[in-house]
Amino acid sequence: MAAVIQIHERECAVCTNDFTTPKILPCGHLLCRECVISWMDSKSNAGCPLCACPIVEHQGNSPQSSVNVVDALPTDYVMEAIVESSRVLVKDDMCTICEDVRAEYICMQCVEKMCPSCMKIHKKMSISRSHDVESVSTVTPERLAASRPALCADHVTEKAEFFCVDHNLVICTPCFSNIHCECLDVKSLDKKLKSAEDALGSLREKLLKAEDNLKQAIVKLNARVQTANITEQENMALVDKTCDRLQTMLDECRKQVKKLISDSVSKFKKSLSYVKIELEKRLGTVTSHKHLVTRATTVRPRHTLIHAAQTLTDRVNSLDLSDELNAEAWVDPSPEITKHCDDVVKEIHDELMGIKRQIVVVEKPVFVFHENFGTNIHLTNFGKTARKAERDKHSDSLVVSRDAMAVNVLYEVRMDEINTQDKSNVVLGVTRVPPTQLHLPTLAYDLKESVILWKNGVSDKNGYLQSNIIKSLKFLKVGSRVGLLVDSSNNLHFYADGDDQGVAAKDVPQPCFAIFDLYRNAIQVTALPTSERI
Question: Is the full-model pTM beyond 0.85?
């Protein structure tokens, strides 16, 4: 079913009228030729008025004139034909033959509007009886444009039957015989139209696939944004919850430490208070006996003085006149306070480490191949699957990870398809040269010093292979998984089907990128989700 162009789609975004010589901008939008020229002349570095994409990139110090730029843009002849057909349909509703009778029909080939009487005559005439005549109310501009016959570029009234590739013109039979008889490439118009339809069909399929991939990529990006938002909210809630718990711990610590200090001081003060009471009692006793002695001395002549002196002497000698009374020793609570605070600090530290482990990392390391490195590699599945373009070629088949390898993260590939004629050769390793800096002409030199490779059990001077690693490489099959991991000591581990086969190389330079060569063994590999191995 032909696509129906809505009325607003036939209108220029600048003049808002139907297109006149519609030009296709680099972004794919359409504007009238004159509108593009006036738009470019109205402002410097003018972009598309619909999406702001540049119309042209000026090179050097001598920019092209707007007229030359616009004339270099392709014309949308399909839209031009649709606009012209729409004008025919909306033009006078009168019969083009009778002129005074309302038209109800239109000939799809002659593009003539007719009343019922003229339509009957048109269908009886030998030259037009095979034409398609339809009701004006049912015909769309698209159908009318599609049904119009191709006319000769020189004889506009003659039906074109050939296409001259040399002159890029549709021509009639007389022109082919007389004017274009010496042209080298003249094809049947039907054959050329079929070729053009096939090319457009292929383009449409390619664009549909690209459109679907882009939509899926946007959906995935939106999902990642949504995941990031949800993760942010969850992490924020976790932080708030932990901080509240830590604040409670701090408040409790403050309360306990203050109580510890208060209890210690209170106990010491109570001891001092007891001593003070005892000393005050002794002071009272001493003071009262002092008064007795003083009073006795005032009656010295009397004979009772002798008895008073003896009595008071015995009494005073029996009194405890010491001003020393041992109070409870002061116990400094600082060590206990310090220990308690240290315990709380450790507990808080453990809490913080716990929240650190609980916080979700939005983006984990992923294994994605660098985009189409080499001329013999096709990447699909958003850069996760690499396939050799041609099986009989053995060059330009290196696949490099897009991002640098993270420490203690396993990077695995699954062998989806294997060359059954040679199952003994595999090339796998790491390079410190970013894929953007690798170049095919100098690839061997670029990889010479920076790559640790093993190939059929032979490694470079910086590495070594254990027997179990060699054994794993020799028995690769479809579905086998091989992987690499760089540990925190910069040792490179080789993994087979998820199991660590040992250290394959030491002192791997950082940062480094995983590489896999489809030279002989594999025809297609897929990068698997990465996983942390601590």
Answer: no
